[in-house]
Write a structure and sequence with these properties.
It comes from Nakamurella endophytica. By secondary structure, this protein is mainly β. The protein is built from one helix and six strands, in the order E-E-E-E-E-E-H. It has a domain of 63 residues. It has a four-stranded antiparallel β-sheet.
Length: 102
C-alpha cells in the first residue's frame, strides 16, 4: 500500500474534534455532592503547578491529574485535583471539602 505524503488528510475517517483545552476527554460525574464535569490531564499536558483542593499540596507540572468544575457552573470555577484526591474526597476528613457551594 502506498504511503500518504506527510500532512495528508485521510478522507475515510471523520475529522477529529477540536482538542480539549486541558488534554483529556471530558465526562460528567453525578455524585452526592452534585454533578461535575471531570477531565483527565496527561503528564505531558500538565505544564503549570496548581494547588489541589483535596490535600492542599501542589499538583506539579508534568503530573497527571484531573480538572473538575460544577456541571452547571462556568469553566472559571475549575479546580485541578490529584486523581486520588478527587476519588477519595468524600471519605477523608480535614481539607478536601469541595471548593464550591452546594
Amino acid at each position: 500500500m502506498p504511503r500518504r505524503p506527510a500532512g495528508a488528510v485521510r478522507r475515510d475517517r471523520p475529522a477529529a474534534r477540536e482538542a480539549a483545552p486541558f488534554g483529556g476527554r471530558e465526562e460528567r460525574q453525578d455524585t452526592r455532592e452534585g454533578s461535575f464535569l471531570v477531565r483527565a490531564v496527561s503528564g505531558a499536558a500538565a505544564v503549570k503547578t496548581y494547588r489541589c483542593p483535596g490535600c492542599q499540596q501542589e499538583v506539579r507540572a508534568g503530573v497527571p491529574h484531573v480538572v473538575v468544575w460544577p456541571a452547571d457552573g462556568d469553566v472559571t470555577e475549575r479546580r485541578h485535583w490529584h486523581g486520588s484526591c478527587w476519588h477519595r474526597r468524600s471519605t477523608r476528613g480535614g481539607p478536601g471539602r469541595l471548593p464550591w457551594p452546594i
